[in-house]
Amino acid sequence: EDFLTLIFKAMMKDALNSSHPVSSAVQSSEQIEEMFDALSYIKGASLLLMLKHYLSKDVFQAGIEVYLHNHNYRTAQSDDLWDSMNEITNGTLDVKKMMKTWIVHKGFPLVTVVRKGKIISVQQEKFLYRVEPENWTADASYLWHIPLTYITNRCNFTHCTNAYLLDQKSG
Fold this sequence. Notes:
alpha+beta; 43% helix; two-stranded antiparallel ribbon; 2 domains; Neutral Protease, domain 2
């Protein structure tokens, strides 16, 4: 419950145009200090949970083990973690490409789902809670690779979850 409260607080901050990406190039020690705030930590934790759910617990755990083994006692970058996950998924999913869309964009997407009969359509756009004119920038080019999971009425209770990666504006 406490973690959910933290997530919603971080999302409220991230939904403002004055937000910042989880990962960005820095030029000074002051910029480094600014990067490591509650938003970065909570959003980062949320993204890792999203990835764990999408890949499955076992695949995610194996990716973490490869990452820790390959980079023990050395410095690492975020790409190193994604490369380790790619190694475990054997090219079935480009984790680096997917996760880059989440860590280099500020904010998060709003996904709209519309059902017409048996046809389901999904569309993404950047969610903004409140537009701050002094910080406004057009973010029409933002595109996230959003892992969506769903169940159908054909669920046999042993494998109920299906996955879809929304990597375009609509699908």
